[in-house]
Every structure is written in structure tokens, then in C-alpha cells.
Design brief:
alpha+beta; Dna Ligase, domain 1; single chain; 15 strands; six-stranded mixed beta sheet; Alpha-Beta Plaits; DNA polymerase, domain 1
Length: 435
């Protein structure tokens, strides 16, 4: 975007804010029951019900408890762990309040999940010289806390991908066991420099298999990836290589997709009786993914976003979505992305009345899909999909998770050494004027 004033030409960079509510389910439960504050507890189904951890408090994280961990393992790591049942209707109601508050800043909002959203505040910043991405982010953080009693972490950058990674870096800079309430700002023009020391796994679409293949080529950091010629990456990874090259240089041209703008194709199943078995749910999901893919192919369309919807036995809804790195019309890709979402949204043994799979971000432009020329390529989503039917992290996976976060923390330390300690800060500690 650019504006002309006389002979002078001013470049207006996009300003994108990524908002991520900190331990959202737990924060809502602490509001309901203040006695939970400061205690180690997890939200989810009980171990005897084959439950997994949907969310856990920061004191529980000090004991090694993590989301998506089997509840039995969580209780072994933290013997005094309290287990609080999920209340999906309550979480959805509070999430709606948060999104309404965010829309009071700008209607240009893209909700990623129940606790996460992007805002495009480019026009606000361009039309008011007193505003910056940082000041708006701090105001969002203040209002979410003061009006709704919730902590959130934010990333600010010139595009969605870098803003999301900035949030992750902000959270990683905070000691485990404490609510982050972090804010990380990446100034325009410094995207590649910011990303350079981070592990390649920080990029969207780089899951364990692709990370391993990149390491085999001697590529462990985003900076190392950015030095590879795009044509070489395309030769090895097909069209996906072009996306890798651009993302490694901090380039992401995707626009905010508001709910009103989003066109979609979906398939839903309402069960005669509430379902509590993974096998039954996954079978329905597979059929829906195939149905959605068939309709995409018939309409000669491809999609970049996969979404699932669950209606619980109390008739409340929960949704989760993820964005693919490359558009697709392939049933295996849609199924794998939807399966990854289901394993994170369904915490085990909770009765499900309805399951739906949908896609959005539709286009008629043909791009190589993930399986077009390389069948063993990773699925390219925000979230790394676990193997179907495995719905809890093992001790080995937890170790890998910790190593990855340790690498991210080390990279954040390098960023602070390079850019100064203000590259990442805790919003609550920053004394800046509110709007």
C-alpha cells in the first residue's frame, strides 16, 4: 500500500497484530473459581476416562504438564494436580466477548480459534500519526485484562506469519510457570533479521518430517534456509519450495479473512446417539473430508483453510481451524489437517452430537498440492499433526517438545542480544500511555 503527497511518496507498511489468550480455559476456570489461582490444575477429562489435558495452569507447567498430554501422565508428573472438567459453552461465550472487544478496534479481524485472532490495523495506524502497532497492542492487552480479566500475549509485524511467530517468541522469553502477557514487535524491514536465528520448525508448514529433510541438507535455522536459492528449493520441494523461500525471508502476502468474507464448503454429520469413541469420530471425519474434497474438485476449486466443528451433548459448539501453506483439493490433505484439529479439540470420552469438516480460502488458481509430486511431504499447517488415533503426547514427544522450546528460548536470547532487550517485553511491565 502506498500514498502520494505532492512529489513525496510514502510507503505505508501493513500492521498486523496477532492476539493469543494465555492458558484460556484455565483463565476462565480461575474466574469461575478464584481458589484455583496459584494452584496446579488441568482442564480436561479424568484419566480413568482416557482423558487428555485440554489446558493447564502455569503452576502445573512448572511440573512438566503440557496441553494434549495424557491425563494419567500429567498426574504422575504432578501428583497434586487438580482436574477440572471442560465447560465448552462457557469458553465459547467468553471467547465471543473477547472477539467483540477486538472488533471494537477494527472490523478487520480473522479468528483462528477460540483463543486466537489476527487484526489488520494498517488503516488505524496510517490515519493517526499518534498510533503505532505497539501502542495499539498494549491498549488491546490492557482492555482485555481490565474489562474481561484475561491475560493475552501479542505479536506485531507487517504480516500474519511473522506476527504469529513474534507471539511465540514473546511467550518463549517468559520463564515457564508464569503467565506470559508478552508483547513482541518486529519493525517493518527487519523481518528476515528477526527470523534468522530461529529454528526452521518455527515456520508454518515445517513439521517433523520436513524439518528432518532440511537438516539433512544442513539447514537448521531460518537464516540458513533464506540463503538457499528459490530454484534449488523448488527443485527439491516443488511449489512448496517457493513458499519456503519467501517465508524464510519474512514474506507473507496473505490478507486477513474476516468471517463475512470467508466462503466455504463443508460437510456435517449429526449422530443418532452421542459418540464417545475415537474410531467412530475419525471414520465420520474421513467420510466428510472425502465429501468436501469431491465438491472442491467438481467446482474446480482449492482451499487454504481447514476447519472442524463439534457440537457437544449440551448443544454448545466448538470450532478449530488451521491454514495450509499451499492450497489443495486433495482428500488426504484435508483429512490429515482435520484429524490434527480433532485430536486437539476433543479431549477424550466427551460425548459428541455433531461433527463437521469444512474448508475456506477458496480459489480457482491451481497450485501444486502437498501430494502432487512428493507423497511423503509434511502436511503444511499451523499445527503439527499427530498420528491419527494417538491423542496424547508420550514422554518421548514431551522431551522433543521441551527441546524445541529450549531452541526457541535460545533464539530469543540471540534476538535480544542483537536487537536489545526491548525486542520482547511483558506488557504488564511496560509503562506506556494507553489510548
Amino acid at each position: 500500500m502506498a500514498s502520494l503527497s505532492g512529489a513525496a511518496r510514502t510507503i505505508i507498511h501493513r500492521t498486523i497484530i496477532h492476539v493469543d489468550l494465555d492458558a484460556f480455559y484455565c483463565a476462565v476456570e480461575e474466574q469461575r473459581d478464584p481458589s484455583l489461582r496459584g494452584r496446579a490444575f488441568a482442564v480436561g477429562a479424568r484419566a480413568q476416562d482416557r482423558g487428555v489435558v485440554a489446558s493447564c495452569s502455569y503452576p502445573a507447567r512448572r511440573c512438566g504438564v503440557r496441553s494434549a498430554m495424557a491425563m494419567g501422565l500429567a498426574q504422575r508428573l504432578c501428583p497434586h494436580l487438580l482436574v477440572v472438567p471442560t465447560r465448552h459453552a462457557t469458553y465459547r461465550a467468553v471467547s465471543a466477548q473477547v472477539m467483540d472487544l477486538l472488533r471494537s478496534f477494527t472490523p478487520q479481524l480473522e479468528q483462528l480459534s477460540i483463543d486466537e485472532a489476527f487484526l489488520d490495523v494498517t488503516e488505524l495506524v496510517a490515519n493517526n500519526p499518534a498510533l503505532t502497532g505497539r501502542s495499539l497492542a498494549l491498549e488491546i492487552q490492557r482492555r482485555v485484562f481490565e474489562e474481561l480479566g484475561l491475560s493475552c500475549s501479542l505479536g506485531v509485524a507487517s504480516n500474519k506469519m511473522v506476527a504469529k511467530i513474534a507471539t511465540d517468541c514473546g511467550k518463549a522469553s517468559v520463564a515457564t510457570g508464569h503467565s506470559p502477557q508478552a508483547l513482541c514487535v518486529v519493525e517493518p524491514g527487519r523481518e528476515a533479521e528477526f527470523l534468522a536465528p530461529l529454528p526452521v520448525s518455527a515456520l508454518w508448514g515445517v513439521g517433523p518430517k520436513l524439518e528432518s529433510r532440511l537438516k539433512d541438507l544442513g539447514i537448521e535455522t531460518i537464516g540458513a534456509l533464506s540463503k538457499w536459492p528459490e530454484r534449488d528449493l523448488m527443485r527439491r520441494f516443488g511449489r512448496h519450495g517457493a513458499d519456503l523461500s519467501q517465508h524464510a525471508r519474512g514474506i507473507d502476502k496473505r490478507e486477513i479473512v474476516t468471517e463475512r468474507e470467508s466462503k466455504s464448503i463443508s460437510s456435517e454429520t449429526t449422530f443418532v446417539q452421542d459418540v464417545q469413541e475415537w474410531e467412530h469420530l475419525h471414520e465420520a471425519l474421513q467420510e466428510q473430508a472425502q465429501s468436501v474434497a469431491k465438491e472442491l474438485q467438481e467446482q474446480k476449486l482449492q482451499a487454504t483453510t481447514v476447519k472442524i466443528k463439534l457440537r457437544w451433548s449440551d448443544f454448545s459448539f466448538s470450532t478449530r481451524q488451521t491454514t495450509l501453506l499451499s492450497s489443495t483439493d486433495a482428500a488426504p490433505v484435508i483429512e490429515e489437517a482435520a484429524t490434527a484439529l480433532l485430536t486437539r479439540l476433543w479431549v477424550g470420552a466427551e460425548p459428541v452430537r455433531l461433527l463437521g469438516v469444512g474448508v475456506s480460502g477458496l480459489s480457482t488458481v491451481r497450485q501444486l498440492g502437498l501430494f502432487d509430486d512428493n507423497p511423503d511431504r509434511d502436511i503444511t499447517t499451523h499445527e503439527e499433526p499427530p498420528t491419527p488415533k494417538v491423542i496424547a503426547h508420550t514422554e518421548a514427544e514431551i522431551g522433543a517438545h521441551e527441546r524445541r522450546h529450549q531452541r526457541l528460548r535460545e533464539a530469543v536470547a540471540l534476538l535480544e542480544a542483537r536487537f536489545g532487550s526491548d525486542v520482547v517485553h511483558l506488557g504488564a511491565r511496560k509503562n506506556e500511555r494507553s489510548l
